[in-house]
C-alpha cells in the first residue's frame, strides 16, 4: 500500500528537490493560465511529494482534490480486461465477437482493441460525446456512425475511444454487472483508491475553458457519457493516482501480478508519423525521452487535463492534474517532475545479496555459452530466473522466466515468448541450450557438439 502521510511537505526529498518540484508546478499553472493544478511524485511505492497551485472553491488544491482524469480511465479498464485474461475467461487473441454481440468491430481481437489497432473510428456517432449526455447513445448499436471501420484490424495504430466503450461492454457481459462496480470491487478498493469515482465527490475542481485572448473563464459541462464512460469518465485525485502509478510499476497480487503489468507496458503499436517518440501497449501509453521510456497515460475532458507517467527502471512516477480544457504543456510538467527527482536525487542500487539454496543443476547451466563462435554468458538470478547476454558488444540479450515444466520463457528482446530448454544427454549431463531452435554450446563450433548442420571435420585453421 502506498504511503501518503506527510506528502504535502515532501517528506523523504531534499529541500532543494522540493523547491524545484514546486517551482515547476507553479510555472506550469501560471504559464498555462490554469485555474488550478496539482502535481505529485511517487518514489519506490511512496507518495513523496505533492503540491497544488491556484484556487478550487476558495482554497489551494491538494493531493485529495478530485479532477476528471479523462482517458486515464482506459488504463483502469485495461486492468479489468487483463484480469479476465489471467482468469482464463478470454484470450488476447480472441475476436470480440466471440464474447460480445456487436454490430461492428466483432473481428477485432482483444489485444487490438487494447492497443488501438482495431481500425475502428476514433469517435462514436455525434454529437461530440465528451460534452453530451450518454442518453443520446443508449445502446451499443447507437455508438456507430457511418463507416465505423476506418482501417483493417491490426493494420496500424488509430486511437479509438469507441474501442474502449466496447471493452467496457465486454467487462459487463463477462462479469454480469456495470463496469464501474467491477472496477471498484476488483481494483479500486484493493489498491485503496477510495477517491476514484464515476461522478465527482467533494472536494473536487470544476472544469473551465480559458478565453484565448483574455484572462476570463467559461464553465465546461460535466456530462455523464453513458456507454462511452469506459473511455474517459472517471474522477480521481493525485493521491489515488499515485497509488495507481505505484501499482503500474510493481503490480499487486491482489489485482494483477508484476508480470502482467509489465506485459501491459510492452509496446504493441507505434503512432503514425516519421517523428514518433512513443507507442502503445495494452491500455498503456509509452513515450521516449532522452533514452528513457515512460509508461502511463494522458487524459483530457472538457475542462480538465490529466497526466500519469512512470519510470519503472528508476521507480519514480508523476501525476499532474488541472482544470483547463486544453493545456499542451501539462505533459512536459509531468515528465519534468520525474526527471527532476532522478537528476537531483538519483536512486541507490538495491543491495547485493547471495541466492538462498541455489539448485546445483541450475548452477551447472551458468557461465559461458557459444552461439556459433559468439560468446554469451548465462547467469542465475532469484527464483530460478535466468539472463543471457553477449560477453562483448551488442547482441540478443534476454531475461527468462522459469516455468513449471523445467523450461524458461523469454521476457524481452528477440527471445520474448521463446522457450529456453537445457538439453541433456542420456547420462544427465547438459549437452546444449535450445532457445527457439537456436543452439548454444559450451565450445565454439567443436566437432561432435550438437551444432545444427554439423561442424567441418577439418576443425579450425
Automatic annotation (TrEMBL):
<keyword id="KW-0378">Hydrolase</keyword>
<feature type="domain" description="DUF7586">
    <location>
        <begin position="359"/>
        <end position="442"/>
    </location>
</feature>
<dbReference type="InterPro" id="IPR012338">
    <property type="entry name" value="Beta-lactam/transpept-like"/>
</dbReference>
<dbReference type="GO" id="GO:0016787">
    <property type="term" value="F:hydrolase activity"/>
</dbReference>
<dbReference type="InterPro" id="IPR050491">
    <property type="entry name" value="AmpC-like"/>
</dbReference>
<dbReference type="Pfam" id="PF00144">
    <property type="entry name" value="Beta-lactamase"/>
</dbReference>
<dbReference type="InterPro" id="IPR056008">
    <property type="entry name" value="DUF7586"/>
</dbReference>
<dbReference type="Pfam" id="PF24491">
    <property type="entry name" value="DUF7586"/>
</dbReference>
<dbReference type="InterPro" id="IPR001466">
    <property type="entry name" value="Beta-lactam-related"/>
</dbReference>
<protein>
    <submittedName>
        <fullName>Serine hydrolase domain-containing protein</fullName>
    </submittedName>
</protein>
<feature type="domain" description="Beta-lactamase-related">
    <location>
        <begin position="23"/>
        <end position="334"/>
    </location>
</feature>
Amino acid at each position: 500500500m502506498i504511503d501518503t502521510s506527510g506528502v504535502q511537505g515532501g517528506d523523504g526529498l531534499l529541500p532543494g528537490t522540493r523547491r524545484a518540484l514546486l517551482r515547476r508546478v507553479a510555472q506550469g499553472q501560471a504559464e498555462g493560465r490554469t485555474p488550478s493544478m496539482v502535481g505529485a511524485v511517487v518514489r519506490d511505492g511512496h507518495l513523496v511529494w505533492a503540491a497544488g497551485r491556484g484556487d478550487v472553491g476558495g482554497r489551494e488544491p491538494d493531493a485529495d482534490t478530485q479532477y476528471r482524469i479523462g482517458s486515464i480511465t482506459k488504463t483502469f479498464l485495461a486492468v479489468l480486461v487483463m484480469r479476465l485474461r489471467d482468469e482464463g475467461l478470454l484470450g488476447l487473441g480472441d475476436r470480440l465477437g466471440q464474447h460480445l454481440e456487436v454490430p461492428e468491430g466483432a473481428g477485432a481481437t482483444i489485444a487490438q482493441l487494447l492497443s488501438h489497432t482495431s481500425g475502428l473510428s476514433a469517435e462514436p456517432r455525434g454529437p461530440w460525446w465528451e460534452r453530451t449526455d450518454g442518453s443520446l447513445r443508449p445502446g451499443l448499436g447507437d455508438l456507430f456512425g457511418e463507416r465505423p471501420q476506418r482501417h483493417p484490424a491490426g493494420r496500424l495504430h488509430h486511437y479509438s475511444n469507441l474501442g474502449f466503450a466496447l471493452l467496457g461492454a465486454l467487462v459487463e457481459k463477462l462479469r454480469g454487472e456495470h463496469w464501474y462496480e467491477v472496477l471498484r470491487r476488483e481494483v479500486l478498493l484493493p489498491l485503496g483508491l477510495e477517491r476514484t469515482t464515476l461522478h465527482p465527490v467533494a472536494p473536487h475542481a470544476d472544469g473551465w475553458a480559458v478565453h484565448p485572448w483574455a484572462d476570463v473563464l467559461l464553465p465546461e459541462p460535466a456530462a455523464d457519457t453513458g456507454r462511452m464512460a469506459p473511455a474517459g469518465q472517471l474522477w480521481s485525485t493525485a493521491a489515488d493516482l499515485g497509488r495507481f502509478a505505484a501499482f503500474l510499476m510493481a503490480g499487486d497480487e491482489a489485482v494483477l501480478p508484476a508480470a502482467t503489468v509489465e506485459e501491459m507496458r510492452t509496446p504493441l503499436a507505434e503512432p503514425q508519423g516519421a517523428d514518433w517518440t512513443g507507442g502503445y501497449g495494452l491500455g498503456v501509453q509509452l513515450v521516449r525521452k532522452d533514452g528513457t521510456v515512460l509508461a502511463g497515460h494522458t487524459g483530457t475532458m472538457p475542462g480538465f487535463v490529466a497526466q500519469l507517467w512512470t519510470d519503472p527502471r528508476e521507480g519514480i512516477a508523476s501525476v499532474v492534474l488541472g482544470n483547463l480544457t486544453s493545456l499542451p504543456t501539462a505533459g512536459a510538467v509531468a515528465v519534468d517532475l520525474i526527471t527532476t527527482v532522478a537528476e537531483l536525487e538519483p536512486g541507490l542500487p538495491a543491495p547485493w545479496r547471495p541466492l538462498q539454496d541455489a539448485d546445483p543443476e541450475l548452477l551447472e547451466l551458468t557461465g559461458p555459452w557459444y552461439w556459433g563462435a559468439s560468446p554469451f554468458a548465462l547467469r542465475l538470478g532469484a527464483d530460478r530466473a535466468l539472463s543471457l547476454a553477449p560477453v562483448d558488444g551488442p547482441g540478443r540479450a534476454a531475461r527468462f522466466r522459469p516455468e513449471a515444466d523445467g523450461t524458461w520463457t523469454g521476457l524481452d528482446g528477440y527471445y520474448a515468448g521463446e522457450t529456453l530448454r537445457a538439453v541433456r544427454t542420456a547420462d544427465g549431463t547438459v549437452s546444449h541450450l535450445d532457445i527457439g531452435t537456436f543452439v548454444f554450446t559450451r565450445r565454439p563450433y567443436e566437432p561432435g557438439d550438437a551444432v545444427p548442420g554439423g561442424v567441418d571435420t577439418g576443425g579450425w585453421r
